[in-house]
Amino acid sequence: MRLLLIIISVLFFSLGSIHSQDIYVNEEPAISNLVKKFIQWNEEKNYINGWRIQIINTDDRRKMERAMSKFKRKFPYISNVAWEQVSPYYRVKVGGFNSKLKAQAFLNEVKEYFPSAITVWEKIRESEFIESVD
Hints:
The chain has a domain at about 50-130: Alpha-Beta Plaits (2-Layer Sandwich), CATH 3.30.70. It has four helices and four strands; from the N terminus they run ααβαββαβ. The chain has helices at about 1-20, 30-45, 60-75, 100-110, and strands at about 45-60, 80-85, 90-95, 120-125. It is an alpha+beta fold. The termini are far apart. The model has no long low-confidence stretch (mean pLDDT about 85). The chain has a four-stranded antiparallel sheet, covered by helices on one side.
């Protein structure tokens, strides 16, 4: 028992002396640069998870182009309309919503003209979010 008391007291006093010491870390310059780049990248990152409406998914480019034109005529107040090709398919995605509830409300309007439209989840730039749909 006495030995245990001695060990605990030695540890207690040694921890107190460690606290007053300065600790220096020598870091490789390459590591420092990587950490700085990582911090900068995170500060510049302006993508947020959100919802879009995919109005068509087809392997016919002409159908995709017609769907885009039709959407722009029916919903001229939605400016972010984009297509992507995931070979062999073309996908047209519109809007940018920060909640599925908002996306679903707009989807109900879109389904009148595009019955196969669905909501899709993806990373969206903050500047592309739609606050309200007229």
